[in-house]
């Protein structure tokens, strides 16, 4: 296992060149945790055992950090009909002013933060925590209202829509303020904003309801003295200037070839914001190990000493990605890694 050094990943977030190839991934998966560590009992999600196993897996793969939620804070919503394919219209609990007033808004101050408070006791040497959120501003509003209903509410009752966004956004700001009191190296604001063609709301409504709260979230993260990463899926071309210049995110994650290959993204935006991951998930699933490694090698050659890039998938590592294909990708950046069969 190579020496872990969070300073290398931090250089990437500062748009500098690390001393060696650096990896980034938002999520792995349970079977991959076992493959990387040999630990079969990985624990329930969020449990102390799960946190320790996740950290061990990230360390074994050669990441200089591990992603963990900062607390058990979240926004309770209704049930969804599908476990692995979730409708954006299921589970709505706020449909009008009356249901908004009845909703029991959670208190981030009351959340359990012990998973990060105790992390120093079991973190592998050199590893730092990158804390992520319980979903983002837009994601949670969609979860609470349903996507179609929220889109109509923005048009028909913008005051109510604004009150919902404010109720979610203000609590997420507090969540990140509290996370900043823990020993974290960076934070992720994870909030999917778009489809493959456009943002989920109009550019005007994104700037009215969503982006102002992300500006405050980034301010809270920066006030803790750490970089801010935006994980957001979809075609965000029309709001990239807002991400960089208004919100002031340090890095962007989640890219798809059908929207814009990461090679083009880096050339277009890499001088203004760090680019994380980007090797398309579908490409990794369908390609040979040789094709994957060739593309990754070319990408590392492209960025060379220009900096501001970490190698990884375009989104995350779901269980359906062939494990050997994923390992082929990370071995380009960490060729000496030994993985458990």
Name the helicity range: 40-55%
Helix-strand makeup class: alpha/beta
Count of domains = 1
Q: Uncertain segments of ≥5 residues (pLDDT<50)?
A: none
CATH architecture: Alpha-Beta Barrel
Largest sheet: 7 strands, parallel
What is the CATH level 1 assignment?
Alpha Beta
What do we call the CATH topology? Answer: TIM Barrel
Quaternary: single chain
Number of strands: 7
- For the record, give the distance between the C-alpha atoms at the N and C termini, rounded to a whole number: 15 Å
Sketch the topology as an H/E string, one letter per element. Answer: HHHEHHEHHHEHEHEHEHHEH
Strand order, sheet with most strands: 1-2-3-4-5-6-7
Envelope shape: globular
Kindly state the mean pLDDT as a whole number?
Answer: 94
| Rg estimate, integer Å | 19 Å
Model description:
The protein has 341 residues and is an alpha/beta fold. The protein is globular. Helix content is 44%, strand content 9%. The protein has a seven-stranded parallel β-sheet, sandwiched between helices. Strand 5, helix 11 and strand 6 form a beta-alpha-beta unit. The chain is built from 14 helices and seven strands.
What secondary-structure arrangement, pairings included, does this model have?
Elements: H1 6-13, H2 30-37, H3 48-61, E1 65-69, H4 97-102, H5 114-117, E2 128-132, H6 137-145, H7 147-156, H8 158-179, E3 184-190, H9 203-223, E4 228-231, H10 240-247, E5 251-253, H11 262-269, E6 274-276, H12 281-286, H13 289-303, E7 309-310, H14 323-333
